[in-house]
Amino acid sequence: TQSRSSAASDVYKRQGKGFAVVASSIKDLVKSSRDTLQYVRTVLEKLTLIHRDMQETRRMLKRSDEETKEY
Prior knowledge:
mainly alpha, 71 residues
């Protein structure tokens, strides 16, 4: 049979391994979240540029239509 101190040591080792697994999972989750946030940021930047281009095109078309009506 194991002594109490040996049994306690085994419990602490298992708890330490469990903590390491949880810590590793949290680290992976943080990295995944960071990567996802960067992806979302990139998509939003692209959408913002597309929206600006569309607004400018709309303004140009409106101007062109107004000029055409003058003739």
